[in-house]
Amino acid sequence: MANPTQHFFESQRLRLSYWDWGNEVAPPLVLVHGGRDHARTWDRIAEAFRDAYHVVAPDLRGHGDSDWAIGSQYGLPDFIPDLVRLIEIVGGRATVVAHSFGGQVATVTAGTYPEMFTAFVGIEGTSSLQPAEFPEMSPAWMREWTERVRGFEQPSFRVYRSVDEAAQRIAEANPRLPADFVPDIATYAVKPVEGGYVWKFDNWVHGRTSMEVRRDERVHFWQAITCPTLLFYGDQSHITYRVSPDAYKYFPNARAVTIPGAGHWVHHDQQERVIEEMRAFFAEVHA
């Protein structure tokens, strides 16, 4: 497996990282990770498609080796300029594969800039449409949000004594991960500090923003996506209550596939099946 090269670009005054698997003459394929994750979790998916695509994967703002957004701006709208800029860098139009929170970022972006997406694959990335505790902007909602983000001002990072200890925590969080892939994920997920290692992601990514796209509003973006769409779900996902498995009904051109024996990280848990489904989907799109 040849290693990708790391590059950086500027977006909204932030220096953001992305990894490039080469083959620049091929059509672009952009892989977008989920919350508290990083770009190199896509290594094995990227390897499977690098011969046919120019594969790149960003570290989202506040994640991996990308800058943190000072001021805690991590709502869905804040990520749109970042993804748009990366797609411009790789050619202005791309096939996008995204997981979890990255799927939410990608669907909002695809609904806002449909002309920039050739095809879209979402992996457990369509958020639930169930009513939120505060369905409308109100003083109660604003107070709850304010108190939550103020709480992040008190650092609470767990320090791991070694990368191996961090890898053990990753394996505990998802026992289905291939054991030989866990050390690679851990290597790019942590950074050294006094006494050991901490996760790279900014704790403020939990806070999002006071001007968030609300659950029922996300349908408007799904309905505006014009490219062919494939949505993956795991039949053993632990966040079933937080995703909308019938979201494909709101997309103009989409179908959904539920993968047996897969949890939330469908592309890790059943990697070969996901790659097989993606290859067939891409063949249909290009045909």
Notes on the structure:
The protein is an alpha/beta fold. It has a single domain (5-135, 204-286), classed as Rossmann fold. 32% of the residues lie in helices and 20% in strands. The chain contains nine helices and ten strands. The strands form two sheets. Strands 1-2-4-3-5-6-9-10 form an eight-stranded mixed beta sheet, with helices on both faces. The protein has a two-stranded antiparallel ribbon with strand order 7-8. It is globular.
Write the layout of secondary structure elements.
Elements: E1 5-11, E2 14-20, E3 28-32, H1 43-49, E4 54-58, H2 76-90, E5 94-99, H3 101-112, E6 117-123, H4 139-151, H5 163-173, H6 182-189, E7 190-193, E8 196-199, H7 218-223, E9 229-234, E10 254-259, H8 266-269, H9 271-286
Radius of gyration: 18 Å
CATH architecture heading:
3-Layer(aba) Sandwich
Note the run of SSEs as H and E.
EEEHEHEHEHHHEEHEEHH
Separation, N- and C-terminal Cα atoms = 29 Å
Q: How do the strands line up in the largest sheet? A: 1-2-4-3-5-6-9-10
